[in-house]
Write a structure and sequence with these properties.
This protein is mainly α. It is about 80% helix and about 0% strand. The chain has 10 helices and no strands. The two termini are about 15 Å apart.
Amino acid sequence: MIEHLIHFMTAHAFWAGPLLALVAFAEGLAVVGSFVPGSIILFTIGTSAGAAHLNVTSMVVWATAGAWIGDTLSYWLGKRHGSRMLAMRPFAYKPQWTERARSLLERRGDIAVIVGRWVPPLRALIPLLAGMSRLGLVRFVLADFFACAVWAAAHLVSGALLGHSMTNGGVLQTLWDHLTH
């Protein structure tokens, strides 16, 4: 599978950034983001990029932008339609997630936004609840941009390091060979 992704990435490197932005955007959207495995996709694409020796910096920028735009749209939806959205699944299905997120937002505000980016059940919920809460737009945008940038870089760069190591030999290649043969 990785070989196919590497081939696609090298043949269509131009599309890697926009596709990453789309995945990160979808993961940042309230409701939709609960069903998108963005972290896994970013890590996998990072691994392929590292194996194909592609520039990961532009991919981090694309993924950061997509995640940030998705989260900001969710913030706006929370500000405008929050209480109605909380009645929908998956929020109504897991009310304890909503309560945990609200509690965290009340206590920590922008720190909750940063932490929420790293906790999958909260990732799609925190921006929506931040829009519903008293957390100001500027405070949310700054905290969220930082969280999105670190999140995107961590997944893509760690994947790229693994992919690069696998194709260039080294400790990880040896371990990989032992695990797959």
